[in-house]
Amino acid sequence: MEEKRIVLAPEGRAEFRNQVDFCVGTGRMGLALHREYLEQLKLVQEEIGFRYIRGHGLFCDDMAIYQETEDGVPEYNFTYLDRVMDSYLELGIRPFLELGFMPEKMASGRQTIFYWKGNTTPPASYEKWTEMVKALLVHLCGRYGREEVVGWPIEVWNEPNLPGFWEHADMQEYFRLFHRTFTAVKEVDEGFRVGGPAVCGGSDEVWIRAFLEYCRDNGLAPDFVTRHHYTTEVPERVGHYGYPELMRAEDGFANLHTTREIIDSFPEYRGREIHITEFNTSYIPNAPLHDTNQNAAYIARQLSRLGDDNESYSYWTFGDVFEEQGVPFTPFHGGFGLVANGCIPKPTFWSFAFFKKLKEGKGHCILKNDNAVVMSMDDGSYRGVAWNVADRRTGEKYLLTLEMEEQQEGCLLTKTVDEARCNPLKIWHDMGEPANLSPEECRLLRDAARPFVETRRVKPKNGRLEISFPVEQNGVAYFEWRPGKVVSDRGYSYGRAAQYPAINPITRLDYPDPDAIRVGDTYYMVSTTMHFMPGCEILRSYDLRNWEHLSYVYEKLDSTPGQTLEGEENIYGKGMWAASLRYHDGTYYVCFVANDTHKTYLYTASRPEGPWEKRYIEGFFHDCSLLFDDDGKVYIVYGNREIWLTQLKEDLSAPLEGGLHRLIVSDKDNPHLGYEGSHLYKIRGKYYLFLIHSRPDMWRRTESCFVADSLEGEFLGGDVLDDDCGLPNRGVAQGPIVDTPEGKWYAIQFQDSGAVGRVPFLMPVTWEDDYPVFGDRGTIPQDFPVESTRPGYVYAPLVGSDDFKGDLKTHWEFNHEPDLSLIAHDREAGTWQVATDKVCASLLQARNTLTQRMLMPGCAAEVTVDGGGLREGDFAGLCALQSCFGFLGLTRRNGELLMVVRTVEPGEFRKFPPENRPEEEWAAVPVEEKPYVLKLEADFSEGKDVCSFYYKDRSFWSRWQKIGPEHQLRFSMEHFCGCRFGLTVYSTREAGGSAAFSEFVYRER
Predict the structure, then answer these.
(1) Can you tell me whether residue 368 is helix, strand or coil?
(2) Which of 744, 852, 904, 958 has its CA 20 to 30 A from that of 879?
(3) What's the pTM value of the predicted model, to 2 decimals?
(4) 159 given a catalytic annotation
(5) Does residue 376 carry a pLDDT above 70?
(6) How many Cβ atoms from other residues are within 10 Å of residue 649's Cβ?
(7) Degrees, nearest 5: CA angle 553-556-562
(8) By the 8 A CB rule, do 772 and 765 touch?
(9) Is 928 a catalytic residue?
């Protein structure tokens, strides 16, 4: 698909004169007495809002203006005129008065035109003609006010260069008519603006030049020049209909420019306004072309250029209540109108509505080309119309990409009219082309005649925005980009209400350093769990988007003093990370290092649910990836900055002596993050190594891929993903690629998402010349197809509530290895009681803190805590667990029970060694000796990363009381994991106290 790119920048400038709403045409004026006519005009005015309307037949006998007595004395009847003008003005539109045709009693001949027999001969008496014109204008001025009426443009006759419209196309006789009429109008008021000659194509150049010569020679100063503009060849007639061929648009524009040149060649008239008082594609009222989407796209192109040389351009006509060739037989019959009978907007209607939108508000044009017009608005938004004219099905749809330097998210609105969407003609055809529509059929066609409206919220990526949408053959699309964040009412969450419809991020939880595989129809993913236990969680999915807990690889690791929180020991920022998950010959393998023990662990199982057998690989292999090659050899790739490949023994216990061992990629000169996070695959005979690093010129993570034909060969490649998804310079990177049973490929990579942690993203992967292409050429698309191998499968949530009745839910992990001897779990009563066995300087050293991940964009936890067993200096409650933790809970102080809020303020993200920051106490409220319900709310939306604290007693009428200030959370290298809810009990003076938890409630926000 061809791509057309548009740079949106306010400094752009392009000439564009948009007079889309100046004037529109109508059939003869007497039709305005019909109800359907006025209903169609009302619809047009509501959506487009034209300023003027021009039509034939003002003086025809059906308007009954000109009468004569039996003695031949003229008299005038303005009854119908007033009804028509009143209706127009009520709808906010004024007449562009076309003076014609000839009343029968004033006509010099019997020649008529059209079904309604408009007389097209000169007046038998020019004196009676001019008196009638003056009487008309005097009456209008008296009824509507002179200041109002003098502003109505006046045109003398219609297409006198055609013999059907003016007897014999007599040029000199028309000039006489114009001269006498011009003079009569100016006698009523010099302020009236009068123009002609209203010629159509064919002899327009000859007529316009001769017209101006006549005016010059006779001292006339026409206020403007009028002509018509139709852009099809002579139609082929078939039955009731005509099928014309469209002209090249450029030929038509060139013809119009010739008129400009002719006028400017007369010094007296240089710069005179040109009004195109009729334009359309075909000049016949029964050309099915008028009803099509092709007509809409072609007219959009016309609307972009007609203002270049012309003051106005009036589409012929607004509606299909039109009788030049008789009353139409069917609602769609190729009529001129923007609206089909039945008040059904045709596609071209929306071309006008879209261009009218470009006029609303203050702004300037920044681009005009053969396919689009774009406005930069003073409020920072952009608006545009794009089209795609296809003649004889020779065109193709194209992809329109808008790009801009933008730091702010916003909304892209598109309204699309094409052959698949907003094509009432096709619906009518499929219905069997009913000639007389029932009310229900009318409603259906009106519904089908609306543009397809779509919106997208888009965030800048890497400081830029790129938004693409297709423009189909014969399509017209209005688009609007409006920057600005979503401003929600208090507590309102669209995401929660809509069940988070966006694909990304997947899980919305802290699952960093992922690795994933597919076995059969099932996908498995492993992630870093650091110091939490049980650890090395395995997730399961059938569609790569939705995941559920399957198992933990280990309950505890090595029970070191740090892992068990002995004394002041801990393993924050250490523990297991960046596991490699593989399946080979019926066995599942999980390999990872622990940065506190500096060991490499290898777990194996015949089933991913376990049990898992623990082994070691001799050596320390940072961010490792296992590869089982086709020849039975096994390799491990690993490292930071320098990426090494090492062949392992057959039992994977250690490197193979004399086996392959080589440096394959180096990034040691990178001033930020060098290559790490290895994922090695063999795909279709080639070796692919995926790595994370930072761009050397700035701190932003990117994903790279290097490929080689053999493990001994050179690995060549570079970055394949550079996308911060709207979080400035927080690039998405590091993770696996995985294929579906159908052979499609996807990647799972994580993003630093603030205090909530490092959250995985899913994206499609395609292949070009045996090299992977991530997403949309290195950026992650907002939407893409995801297929399930088990449609309808219901996933268990990864976080959730727990009434503590029955077994502990798998949502929970302990902060470090627990001491289960200190826990009393009453499964019948639903209580979780924790006792202390040591004195702690901080809750971070408390044993048996029970945790769950926090959920973005926000979440809340509630829990009931009974502090009756607390001793002096003990604390029990609910915390936001991270290095800069926030704690809400009970403490006993001087024998009294207090509700307290304690926090540690955030330090610097990358400061080593970490700062020893003191706890601060923000509130200490005396409370009664009874259980209390605690609530902690976390808000990660728009980078807020804050939490708030509330409590209440357990009575039915109790209300939440806010306590303490809002606390700032921050992801830091000290813990190197996302914030979690924690249920904690610890002692600061003497061990042995306890507290009981019950009724834990997890809520999304």
Answers:
(1) strand
(2) 958
(3) 0.82
(4) yes
(5) yes
(6) 14
(7) 135
(8) yes
(9) no
